[in-house]
Amino acid sequence: MANGNRGSKLRLWCSAFACTLLALVETDGLFVDITYVESAVAKGAVCLDGSPPAYHLAPGFGSGVNSWLVHFEGGGWCNNVTTCLQRMHTRLGSSKEMAKQVAFSGILSDAPGYNPDFYNWNKVRVRYCDGSSFTGDKEEVDPRTNLHYRGARIWQAVLEDLLAKGMNRAENALISGCSAGGLTSILHCDRFHQLLPAGARVKCLSDAGFFINVKDIAGENHAAAFFNDVVTTHGSARNLPSSCTSKLPAGMCFFPQNEVKQIQTPLFILNSAYDSWQVRNILIPGGSDPRWWNCKHDISQCSAKQLEILQGFRDHFLVALEEQGTSSTGGLFINSCFVHCQTEIQEIWFAPGSPALGDKKIANAVGDWFYDRSPFQKVDCPYPCDSTCPIFKNS
């Protein structure tokens, strides 16, 4: 999610489109106050600038009092001292800069007409201020920068705080997230499950978090190099699943295609096969051929040759998914809309014109899957076949 202090070249890897959507989310809906986890500071569980972590909690009601949705924000990553310093004095690096209230919409809505299966749950939005998808943990702090790389400690401290507030009695629990938060829900899926009561129904949802290892249009391994730098900068290796790090370099374990097969907890992957953020930052990163500018920001403006390359990106994405095999407990909603993040925006999550696969909108598919009413594993046809996409639907 964007912040104006982060530099014109988006070196912190944030989608302008996702940022626009966040602005829309924050204009309406239920406003929820911030909670600072002050007790986390003594444990060293702090944001990049040393401030306490934070979250927003809307208490559950009615039949949802013992059900918990823990949703992690997105916001890219920082991969070196320079980019982490750029985040340090923004809401992506400091709780001092966070809004005191945020709007809950989409999967966080408290209205049954907008969020049919999770509206009355305890709903938590965990703020993102570490730049490592909650994986980093370095004890040392350079006095010249005062940067704290403590994402893994934040994750633990926030979850402990929520457990003490009643999540330890959860009957249903879902960890979810968007973008870098969607990656968080994958990397921490089994760890989340282990914290919940043995008899609880616990599942994980990743929204736009299935980042793939693919070369950019210049043939460079841009994403792999970036993730390797993130892991090195934050000291993330020890907090990534050992089932992956025992076989691959730690940086490669930021790619879900190297993780998902080993996850034991039921996981739902919600993603576009033409994820707009991945197209703009992995396939066509900053500094690429300027002739791609219009195409990377509006798929309807792509030439036939450019669209062929985007179709190739979709092919790579689907192969990465297929390599995971088909788990009977997993869910898939892979559409062909040129979007990034689809759970936080009411118009995409559940509304009259929301995207659908078959006869189900995203909210219905996720709810049916979570409650075991019916499985859902569908992949959309190639762009531009899907008339339900809210963006470029007539292109």
TrEMBL record:
UniProt KW keywords: Cell wall, Cell wall biogenesis/degradation, Hydrolase, Secreted, Signal
A GO cellular component entry from the record: plant-type cell wall
EC number: 3.1.1.-
InterPro entries, per the entry: AB_hydrolase_fold, PAE/NOTUM
GO molecular function: pectin acetylesterase activity
Subcellular location per the Swiss-Prot or TrEMBL entry: Secreted, Cell wall
Annotated signal sequence range: 1-29
Main location: secreted
Pfam families per record: PAE (PF03283)
GO biological process: cell wall organization
Record-stated family: Belongs to the pectinacetylesterase family.
Name this polypeptide is given: Pectin acetylesterase
Native source species: Lolium multiflorum (Italian ryegrass)
